[in-house]
């Protein structure tokens, strides 16, 4: 199954004195988010990685369903992956 996405975000870490960091769309150059402190910059890094992680989770889910679906102990892991994908794609 093809899980490619055309969304790709970059992250530029801020520097002193204000540490303003930026998440931006690598395709359009459009700014997506700006952060001003360590906590929000950690969230911004996660935000920038989200499209890649979503594609990876979809591939992991395909593999898990093909490989582990018949094992009771793996069903909670599969459900967790499905739930994360559903949260990320609720508007699709």
Can you offer a commentary on this structure?
With 92 residues, the chain is an alpha+beta fold. It has one domain (9-88). Helices cover 49% and strands 15% of the residues. The protein is built from 2 helices and 3 strands; from the N terminus they run βββαα. The chain has a 3-stranded antiparallel sheet, covered by helices on one side. The protein is elongated. The chain starts with 8 loop residues before the first strand and ends with a helix.
- Return the string of H and E elements: EEEHH
- Content of β-strand: 15-25%
Q: Mind describing the biggest β-sheet? A: 3 strands, antiparallel
* Number of strand segments: 3
The share of residues in helices is: 40-55%
Give Rg in angstroms: 17 Å
* Distinct helical segment count: 2
Structural class: alpha+beta
Average per-residue pLDDT, rounded, comes to 83
Q: What is the molecular shape?
A: elongated
Oligomer: single chain
Distance between the termini: 17 Å
Number of separate domains: 1
Low-pLDDT segments:
none
Which sequence of strands runs across the widest sheet? 1-2-3
